[in-house]
Specification:
By secondary structure, the chain is mainly α. It is built from five helices and no strands. Helix 4 runs antiparallel to helix 5. The N terminus is likely disordered.
């Protein structure tokens, strides 16, 4: 493993497929045009997998989504939940200040707007998942 790979957080590293008993005996050669090769490389890089793994996952996916796509979906959803959690801390701080002073913080409207925006983002992610 290179130093560059070792320094990256695990969730950003490309993962190898798990070993299987007896190894993988079959090999398939696929010839592609330079344009197709470029598209495959871009998709594989985006999914952080090798081109062969991308092809195998895509071909064998039962629900038209690969494990890499599910992982990316989960990362998006967890990111949105983390953002919502951070905003909820601000809302709690504002509620505490309001209870102590009786005055509404002037940035309450902006914060509540962010809560709505993140909730809509989560809803959009979930709708995208349902559409699959």
């Amino acid at each position: 493993m290179s130093d560059e790979t070792a320094d990256r957080p695990r969730r950003f590293r490309r993962e190898r497929r798990a070993n299987v008993d007896g190894g993988r005996q079959a090999r398939h050669v696929v010839k592609v045009t330079p344009e197709e090769e470029s598209a495959l490389l871009a998709k594989a890089q985006h999914a952080r997998v090798s081109v062969p793994r991308l092809l195998v996952e895509s071909a064998l996916a039962e629900h038209s989504e690969t494990a890499s796509e599910r992982r990316e979906f989960a990362e998006q959803l967890f990111g949105a939940f983390r953002l919502l959690s951070a905003i909820s801390i601000n809302v709690n701080q504002m509620a505490k200040a309001t209870n102590a002073t009786g005055d509404l913080p002037e940035n309450l409207g902006v914060t509540l707007g962010e809560v709505r925006r993140v909730a809509m983002r989560i809803d959009g992610i979930l709708q995208e998942f349902d559409a699959r």
